[in-house]
Amino acid sequence: AQKITQTQPGMFVQEKEAVTLDCTYDTSDQSYGLFWYKQPSSGEMIFLIYQGSYDEQNATEGRYSLNFQKARKSANLVISASQLGDSAMYFCAMRVPPSGTYKYIFGTGTRLKVLA
Amino acid sequence: GAVVSQHPSRVICKSGTSVKIECRSLDFQATTMFWYRQFPKQSLMLMATSNEGSKATYEQGVEKDKFLINHASLTLSTLTVTSAHPEDSSFYICSAMPQNRGYSNQPQHFGDGTRLSIL
To answer: What's the CA dihedral at B68, B95, A84, A48 to 10 degrees?
Structure first.
């Protein structure tokens, strides 16, 4: 069965420090994509970063990087130099394409609070 | 680029009324759009996949007659909550996929969501 697991319901980090949000996944497919989204309290879903199963390098987008460990089936999000505006809910999602749809499987999310 | 507009952002209405929510892709064409429901402090729950020109594909447990989806053009999908009741109160959010692009690394682009409150 395909599944995304986020084991940290809540995290705190001090402003300007780095934080890692965990995400593990389960799929028997060889081809898949992993996505991270940020959801502030206002509700919109903001796309942060993508990692493909065949990508050899870890994805990076500004202060966001993805620690992709394929053998462990983990795709942890690292936020460097945390800012107060990073306080939000963070969702990890997986897309497995073979069925011809583009559906996501979402994790339960991690609520991050950045402390001043 | 890849902007998705969702309207209205908030709706408060009486029990028994029907509510229509629009999801528009503003700067791209979307063959596929998705409708999600989110309860407070929970993850997004996929309700249905909306395909332009064909019937929507509903997830198990989602009432087709309660949640009517129409995807009449490549830029517009609508979700109508029929005869809404207080238990239908929730946050509804749509997303869209750009047409004719390799799916592999294309993210879903989300609207800002609609907070529906049924009194």
So the answer is: 160
CA dihedral B38, B94, B69, B17 (to 10 degrees): 60
pLDDT tens digits, one per residue of A34-70: 999 999 999 999 999 999 999 989 999 999 999 999 9
pLDDT tens for chain B, residues 1 to 119: 789 999 999 999 999 999 999 999 999 998 889 999 999 989 999 999 988 888 899 999 999 999 999 988 999 999 999 999 999 999 999 999 887 555 567 889 999 999 999 99
Q: CB B32 to CB A31 under 8 A? A: no
Q: Shortest Cα distance from B20 to chain A (angstroms)? A: 19
Q: For residue B115, list chain A residues with Cβ-Cβ distance below 8 A.
A: 43
Rounded to the nearest 5 degrees, what angle is found at the Cα of B40, between the Cα atoms of B69 and A34? Answer: 70
Q: Are B51 and B57 contacting, i.e. CB atoms less than 8 angstroms apart?
A: yes
Contact A107 B106 (CB under 8 A): no
Is cis: bond before B8, omega within 30 of 0? yes
